[in-house]
Design brief:
about 140 residues, mainly alpha, 2 domains, about 0% strand, elongated
């Protein structure tokens, strides 16, 4: 095996392990919301206790997803450096903007003015800052 095959094998293992955590937490979040609603509706403490138990597991699984996701970002940068350079001006600025806001990136965050459903965002300052930063980050040649 050469270095390329080993890097691909490592990435396959990492992505296979990583995808378990986001899928588990997405499903668990809806279950926790259901338990919370049942506790609120019925007032039975069994739902509260179950919700608190699963909330701890959710926090652990979410943390594992974050940790494995960070490893994936380094692997993508190392294994696909050309791809990372090609999309850095588009995705990098959008992800930085989302991180500063403390919210996950939305698909329309790259160019919010192109979406008819987000016309109300046009007047907000963060939208214009994103648009200006994206434009200034484009390669000149």
């Amino acid at each position: 095996m050469d270095a390329v095959q080993l890097a691909r094998l490592q990435f396959a293992f990492t992505i296979g392990f990583h995808i378990l955590w986001p899928t588990f937490t997405i499903g668990l979040a809806s279950f926790i919301a259901l338990l919370s609603g049942m506790w609120w509706r019925t007032g039975r403490t069994v739902y509260r206790d179950l919700m608190r138990f699963w909330l701890r597991i959710f926090a652990l699984a979410f943390g594992m997803g974050v940790i494995t996701g960070v490893v994936l970002s380094y692997e993508i940068g190392a294994n696909w450096a050309g791809y990372s350079r090609a999309v850095a001006y588009v995705l990098g600025n959008a992800h930085i903007h989302a991180a500063r806001r403390g919210r996950p990136i939305r698909p329309d965050a790259i160019d919010p003015l192109s979406s008819a459903a987000n016309r109300q965002l046009v007047a907000q300052p963060h939208t214009w800052l994103l648009r200006i930063g994206w434009t200034l980050g484009l390669p000149s040649g």
